[in-house]
């Protein structure tokens, strides 16, 4: 099994019963290989968040199949689904979603605490990711005492602490200024290259997308174009390519 993610003929129709129907995704197919960093681009309303929410199991497909590490999500419910999600996936949102009443340490530890990992192991794991994300000095602070960039690094540490096989990000740099965005993207690229974590990141920003190995463009609920970064191609060169493609798309 060489893919961490396979999405097969995924269709998502919003609107139940007599409500107005809206087809957000229609027979969408994509795969992410193990160790790959893939970005998803597309106009507002093209279905990017819908796609990520279905992959992350926050939402349920109307039809089609999603395999994570070769395992189907269909039929997984309740605790089995929660366990599967907790083990395999890390999620970085645009709005950080940190819990204000918990310290940075406790926020990062949360996925492990929920899995009842022993506190000694939790301490080691939190230290490891805090070092990776350069937030070791912030562990006793509360979210309200942090800058936006520090909050996002805390949220990234939480997404990574249980060593998920796949990280999903929905506009993870969306609420950051350009310096903090670059810091986060470089960290994600490092995690991808050094720890082998696979990443699927939604972004409308060409600069952010240029950190990925491959970019999928979504339109009308389907993948309609793909850009692949050449071996040894710099992010800068890839960025120019992305800009040209985005210009054609619009
Ligand atoms: N719960 C819902 N009920 C009905 N329609 C919805 C719902 N959620 C999303 N949609 C519609 O589905 C389409 C895709 O929405 P989605 O949030 O996936 O877009 P997006 O690509 O993430 O956009 P953006 O770049 O603005 O975040 C939109 O037209 C949206 O209005
Ligand atoms: Mg969205």
UniProtKB/TrEMBL annotation:
Pfam families (UniProt xref): ABC_tran
InterPro entries (UniProt xref): AAA+_ATPase, ABC_transporter-like_ATP-bd, MacB-like_ATP-bd, P-loop_NTPase
GO biological process: amino acid transport
A cellular-component GO term for this protein: membrane protein complex
The keyword Hydrolase appears for this protein: no
GO molecular function term, any single one: ATP hydrolysis activity
Coiled coil: none
Residue intervals of the ABC transporter domain: 5-245
Keywords: Amino-acid transport, ATP-binding, Nucleotide-binding, Transport
PANTHER family given in the database record: ALPHA-D-RIBOSE 1-METHYLPHOSPHONATE 5-TRIPHOSPHATE SYNTHASE SUBUNIT PHNL, LIPOPROTEIN-RELEASING SYSTEM ATP-BINDING PROTEIN LOLD
Protein family per UniProt: Belongs to the ABC transporter superfamily.
Protein name, as recorded: ABC transporter domain-containing protein
């Amino acid at each position: 099994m060489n893919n961490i993610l396979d999405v097969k003929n995924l269709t998502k129709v919003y609107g139940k019963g007599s409500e107005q129907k809206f087809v957000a995704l229609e027979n969408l197919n994509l795969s992410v290989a193990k160790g790959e960093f893939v970005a998803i681009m597309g106009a507002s309303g093209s279905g990017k968040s819908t796609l990520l929410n279905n992959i992350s199991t926050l939402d349920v497909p109307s039809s089609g199949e999603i395999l994570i590490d070769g395992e189907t999500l269909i039929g997984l419910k309740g605790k089995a689904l929660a366990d599967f999600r907790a083990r395999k996936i890390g999620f970085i949102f645009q709005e950080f979603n940190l819990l204000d009443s918990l310290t940075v340490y406790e926020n990062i530890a949360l996925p492990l605490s929920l899995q009842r990992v022993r506190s000694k192991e939790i301490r080691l794991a939190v230290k490891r990711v805090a070092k990776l994300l350069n937030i070791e000095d912030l562990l006793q602070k509360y979210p309200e005492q942090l800058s936006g960039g520090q909050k996002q690094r805390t949220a990234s540490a939480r997404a990574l602490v249980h060593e998920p096989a796949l990280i999903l990000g929905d506009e993870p740099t969306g609420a950051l200024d350009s310096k903090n965005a670059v810091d986060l993207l470089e960290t994600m690229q490092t995690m991808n290259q050094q720890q082998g974590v696979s990443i699927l990141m939604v972004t409308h920003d060409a600069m952010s997308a240029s950190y990925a190995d491959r970019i999928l463009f979504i339109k009308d609920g389907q993948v309609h174009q793909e850009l692949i970064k050449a071996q040894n191609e710099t992010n800068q060169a890839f960025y120019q390519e992305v800009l040209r493609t985005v210009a054609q798309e619009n």
